[in-house]
C-alpha cells in the first residue's frame, strides 16, 4: 500500500498542468484513501458533538476537510482531528 501511495503522490507532483492547490488536494485524497481520513460521523462521535458541528468546524477551518469529488468534503484528516483534540485538552 505504501509503495502505491508513494507512486501516486510522485505522479501528482510531476503533473505540469496541476496547480499547487490541486496537487495538495490530490495528495490529501490519496492519504484519505489510505485510511488516514476520518468520516464525519466518526469525528462527531470522537468530539462528542453533532455532525453539523463538525461540518461547521471544517467551514471555519478549524478542521481540515478532504474533498474527493463534489462540493462537500468526504472526511477529515486524522492529523487535524488529533491536533484539534490536543488543542482542546490544553485549554
Question: Layout of SSEs?
Answer:
Layout: H1 2-14, H2 20-36, E1 37-38, H3 40-47, H4 51-59, E2 65-66, E3 75-77, H5 78-90
Antiparallel strand pairs: 1-3, 2-3
Helix pairs in contact: 1-2, 3-4
Plain-language structure description:
The chain has 91 residues and is mostly helical. It has five helices and three strands. It has helices at residues 2-14, 20-36, 40-47, 51-59, 78-90, and strands spanning 37-38, 65-66, 75-77. It has a three-stranded antiparallel sheet. Helix 1 packs antiparallel against helix 2 and helix 3 (40-47) crosses helix 4 (51-59). The longest helix has 17 residues, at 20-36. The protein is elongated. The termini are far apart.
Please sum up the structure shown.
The protein is mainly α and 91 residues long. It has helices at residues 2-14, 20-36, 40-47, 51-59, 78-90; strands at residues 37-38, 65-66, 75-77.
Shape: elongated
The residue ranges in which pLDDT falls below 50 over 5 or more consecutive positions are none
User: What is the CA–CA distance across the termini?
Assistant: 38 Å
Strand order of the largest sheet: 1-3-2
Q: Describe the largest sheet.
A: 3 strands, antiparallel
Specify Rg, calculated over alpha carbons: 14 Å
Annotation field: number of helices: 5
Q: Which class do the helix and strand fractions yield? A: mainly alpha
Helix and strand run:
HHEHHEEH
